[in-house]
Specification:
RNA Polymerase Alpha Subunit, Chain A, domain 2; 3 domains; elongated; three-stranded antiparallel β-sheet; about 25% helix; five-stranded mixed β-sheet
């Protein structure tokens, strides 16, 4: 009987001790400063386009939490595992479901966060205290498909043979004119000249964010030949190419410079512009043996076309033989060399 009484007393003492420990743990609050918090716009509602301080997410400089030691530790370990405190923001749930600009009071918003509320923690302070929220309502409507090259420059309409379909349905801001964009690499453009290329359009919305459209589109480019036009370059410059054996030893006396003044080409506008901007439009390659005589030499010059456009068939000479340069090689004297230096 005495043993039973002692056992009962021991059990009561242990229970009281455990309760004291639990009560003490709950009573002793600790603080937890969090400096790696990111609030990100939830994309659950396609009818709303939401930005926080003009972007898809906002970084919170610091949040100060307070609560029981055990629960503070639990949240701290979770944040460490995740590499930060990640919080979703749903504008509609915060009563911001219409197009307008709003101010989000962070203290009250954070206090409602699921994990903070579940652990019974208190938000004591945060920096900043207010975040700007911009909401734009969107509607699902047909938008025109636009093709861009890899530099995001619109491809001219005459370069496109067909786009199917020419419009796609997408959620876009009610009052803005937005196109569904398709970006093609150079390889895809070349492929599209042979057979249609299938691509997924995207919508570019405020804040720089991109959303793909559900409908795929087929693009067929016009053959290169259809884009070529005739041009005359009236400011062609002739460059001389010597070998290392003769470079700096001779100068060229060109006898028919007027024949080099203008060249006719067939090219796309882009290829023509690049060709014009090069230092030399024509190159005269001078063999070493020409230096052994002062006779007049005749040699075809070479069109210095940009190789990338040549490989794509976007530039060539226009039904003419390359012009011939008539020239002599004049030795550079020591005096002339000194003057050039």
């Amino acid at each position: 009987m005495a043993k039973k009484v002692k056992l009962g007393k021991i059990t009561i003492v242990i229970s009281i001790t455990v309760l004291i420990w639990v009560w003490t743990d709950l009573a002793l609050d600790e603080g937890l400063p969090i400096s790696n918090t990111i609030i990100t716009v939830a994309q659950s509602n396609p009818k709303l386009w939401v930005t926080l301080n003009g972007a898809a997410s906002v970084s919170i400089e610091e949040i100060k939490l307070k609560g029981p030691h055990r629960r503070i530790n639990e949240l701290s370990r979770k944040i460490e595992r995740q590499g930060g405190f990640m919080i979703d923001f749903d504008a509609a749930e915060e009563g911001m479901g219409k197009s307008d600009s709003y101010s989000l009071q962070l203290m009250s918003f954070l206090q409602k966060e699921d994990e903070i509320r579940r652990l019974g923690l208190k938000v004591e302070d945060c920096t900043p205290k207010i975040v700007s929220v911009n909401v734009v309502e969107r509607i699902n409507k047909p938008v025109t498909v636009e093709c861009l090259d890899e530099d995001k420059i619109p491809i001219k309409a005459e370069s496109i043979e067909s786009i199917e379909p020419t419009t796609v349905d997408a959620y876009v801001p009610v009052d803005e004119m937005i196109t569904a964009k398709i970006q093609l690499t150079r390889r895809e453009i070349e492929q599209a000249r042979v057979s249609a290329v299938t691509k997924t359009p995207y919508i570019e919305l405020p804040g720089g964010r991109i959303r793909n459209v559900a409908t795929t589109v087929k693009i067929k480019m016009s053959p290169v030949e259809d884009e070529l036009a005739d041009y005359t370059i009236t400011t062609a410059t002739l460059g001389y190419c010597f070998s290392e054996n003769t470079q700096g030893e001779y100068r060229v006396e060109l006898l028919n410079r007027t024949d080099m003044a203008a060249v006719r080409i067939k090219a796309t506008l882009a290829a023509k512009q690049v060709y014009e901007q090069q230092p030399y439009q024509l190159i005269l390659y001078i063999p070493d043996e020409y230096a052994r005589t002062t006779d007049v030499h005749e040699k075809e010059v070479v069109f210095n076309f940009p190789e990338e456009y040549v490989s794509r068939g976007e530039i060539r000479q226009l039904n003419q033989e390359p012009p011939e340069a008539r020239f002599r090689l004049i030795p550079i004297t020591a005096t002339e060399s000194g003057e050039e230096n």
